[in-house]
Write a structure and sequence with these properties.
about 55% helix, elongated, Cytochrome Bc1 Complex, Chain D, domain 2, single chain, Multihaem_cyt_sf, two-stranded antiparallel ribbon, oxidoreductase, oxidoreductase activity
């Protein structure tokens, strides 16, 4: 009986040691795959594995802190959870790191469990091999297919045109041969006697027809000149190349960045400014290479990475030292949308007061091409453009047509109060569409609104 109890106790001790060892090993090794998810969610704003961003590279950080400071994983747990408290405790290595990286405050992560931190450290020690990405060239794009079909059609048209010209030349040669034979015959003398010998005789004979043709030509010439004059300064479809390539499809489309994050003054000012390069650096200070799935046909990762380097050159940012050098290179952007000096246009008035009214009006007129952001009503579906282009005419007639068809939201808090005593009068004065009030009814066609 005593022997059995002795063996029973030894067995329990052995099982306990085995379980504790297993737990210790698991906690030490961690799960690199889960660590990768946690790393991307918590660390990538300031760190990368293989290069310095705001903070140091974290690949092999466990071995590095052991070599540099003689500390281990327990120290890293304390540093990650609350590095401020660790520095305040007088930890020498913690304060050395703080001084080394320009006293940049690191976030604290009290929400991470010990297992989460072990998983992250396992990822930095032995990151999983990246999955192979499918190259966009593997599947021919719609644009490439369309371009191929267009080239084929153009080739067919050229061939048919050349054949038609060749047939015409053969016909002319045959007729010339007939004329030569006719000139060598006796019948030519009889024809010469009946032939009209001067243009004046032709005009006298057919002067009514001639005057009619001249009048038609004069009208066509007048219309052509007028049409040409009316389209001076209209550049719909204009899309110039910029000194730094910027794809709105990648930023506004793929990454869903709000227009007003970059064009902040559109909501509060008359002009929607070209964003400062410092706005770009809010994100690209930590994004030094392109790792997105979308690739424009004909462009690759190296192209996009090169454009990011242009941003660094323009702002004087040194990605290796993670600091500004002070040597900047101003970027000469090519302006696309530019109102004439004699035209007043206020972005904030349209983006704030008229936002929902403009969206509703546009979607009503374009049920198959609806928009969700007011900017798209004038600038087109900018989130699908790799190169920004002028999407509309931006003529006076185009603006007036919009004012005549866009219904004012009289339930808007501002309009409801401002036009409080005018509602009934306006509904009687503008009874169209059941008393709906459009922008022209509240002064949208007054010359002084836009010209001053």
């Amino acid at each position: 009986m005593i022997s059995w109890r002795k063996h029973y106790k030894q067995t329990l001790i052995a099982i306990g040691l085995l379980l504790s060892t297993s737990a210790s090993i698991y906690g030490q090794d961690g799960d690199p795959k889960n660590g990768e998810k946690l790393f991307k969610a918590n660390c990538t704003a300031c760190h990368a594995l293989d290069k310095q961003v705001i903070g140091p590279p974290l690949k092999g950080v466990v071995d590095r802190v052991k070599t540099e400071g003689g500390v281990g994983k327990d120290w890293l747990h304390k540093w990650i959870k609350d590095n401020k408290a660790l520095r305040a405790s007088g930890d020498k290595y913690a304060n050395e790191i703080f001084e080394k990286y320009n006293k940049t405050e690191m976030l604290v992560f009290p929400n991470l469990t010990d297992k989460d931190i072990d998983d992250i450290l396992a990822y930095t020690t032995n990151p999983p091999a990246p999955e192979e990405k499918k190259t966009p060239e593997a599947t021919p794009s719609t644009e490439a297919t369309t371009a191929s079909a267009s080239d084929k059609t153009t080739t067919n048209i050229v061939i048919i045109s050349l054949l038609a010209i060749a047939g015409l030349l053969v016909w002319i040669l045959i007729k010339l041969r007939q004329l030569v034979k006719l000139g060598q015959s006796e019948d030519l003398a009889g024809l010469n006697e009946t032939r009209v010998k001067s243009f004046s005789e032709i005009y006298q004979k057919y002067h009514f027809v001639g005057k009619g043709i001249i009048a038609i030509l004069a009208l066509l010439a007048t219309y052509g000149i007028w049409n040409w004059i009316m389209w001076i300064g209209v550049y719909k479809g204009y899309k110039p190349e910029q000194p730094i390539y910027f794809s709105h499809k990648i930023h506004a489309g793929e990454n869903k960045i709000d227009c007003q994050l970059c064009h902040s003054s559109a909501k509060y000012g008359k002009v929607s400014e070209i964003p400062s390069m410092n706005v770009c650096m809010n994100c690209h200070r930590t994004i030094s290479e392109y790792n997105g799935k979308y690739m424009e046909p004909g462009k690759d990762k190296a192209f996009y990475d090169g454009e990011i380097q242009k941003i660094y050159a323009a702002t004087g940012w040194d990605p290796q030292k993670a600091q500004y050098t002070g040597k900047t290179q101003p970027v000469e952007w090519t302006r696309i949308h530019n109102m004439p000096d004699f035209v007043y246009f206020n972005h904030s008035q349209h983006v704030v007061a008229g936002e929902q009214a403009i969206i509703n009006s546009f979607n009503k007129k374009n049920p198959n091409n609806k928009i969700d952001v007011v900017c798209k009503a004038c600038h087109g579906k900018i989130d699908t453009m790799n190169v920004v282009q002028m999407a509309n005419d931006f003529t006076m007639g185009w603006c007036i047509e919009c004012h005549r068809t866009t219904e004012v939201d009289m339930n808007n808090g501002y309009n409801k109060e401002y036009f409080k005593n005018l509602h009934d009068k306006l509904k009687k004065q503008y009874p169209k569409d059941g008393g709906k009030i459009t922008v022209d009814a509240i002064g949208g066609l007054e010359c002084g609104k836009c010209h001053y």
